[in-house]
Amino acid sequence: MIRCFFLLLALCLPGSAWALCSVVSTTPVAFGSLSSIAVRTTAQSSSSLNAGLSCTGSLLSLLSANDHFYATVTSSQSGLRGPTGDIINYTLYANNSTSYPLTRGVAFDFARNGILDALGLLGSVVPKTAPIFLRTTIGSNVAAGIYSETLSIAWSWNYCSGLGIGNICVGRDIGSGNTTLTVNLTVANDCTITAPNINFGSAPVISAFAPVTGQTINLACTKGSAYTVGLSDGQQAVSVGGRRRMISGGNYLAYDIFKSAGTTRWGSVGAARRASTDAEVNPGNGLGTGSQVFNYNAKIYSDQNTPPAGTYQDSVVLDVGF
Q1: pLDDT mean over 218-228
Q2: Among residues 89, 102, 140, 223, which one has the fewest Cβ atoms lying within 10 Å of its Cβ?
């Protein structure tokens, strides 16, 4: 009874403190919806303010070398897995930088490098949770869809939770527990488009304009995506007959754009569009990192009067539909 009395007295002295930790449910990580190009070319960042460790208290000294807060992350997957089995790789970090990465299957000590001290996790009278940060790896060429992974996080801690006279440790909080953290990212279809301008050159009369041949449009679209490509009628199209027209002042010069090397007009609706399977180079679904090439030709209609001299222009919109 005497030993118990003195222990209680020491803990009640001014300057003493307690801090207690527990494992709680996590807050999922959502990268949001990103284009396949953004996922492949740019590292994407996200985080969870709650990785499963919750602590409260008012610890009056920094953590010592004898204290630890281990987090061991494991998973049955190697990254975010999508509907076709593609994987988006990413790295977890203990703070909002790339200084302290977490290696899967290896215990990481959040007590080191001042991480918990900076968070004030043990210095607040209200519960605080340990965050965790994520950053995708550049180079993932993946199909569109929802990508997800469920991580298992094993927490284990052992630290001084109570201080007595002279800041002597008179109590330790020792515990462990397991929780899970879900990570999600939605990949949206997208394309990189290369479409050079058409230049008919100059001529004194309509009949002297030569067709423009061997033109190409290159598209690098999301891996596995089936799509169609349309060309608008331009800004000055004839309402009847559908001819495209260039304009200079109040004068017009009718022209058109045709599929491949043929005479079938390339338009924006229905059968006038071109499917990804109709590409001259790499026909089929999108490749992600490789281009599909669509050939076309253009000509100025010869059955029109030669308009006044001038610089004639039009603007045509290329659209991709998935």
Answers
A1: 98
A2: 89
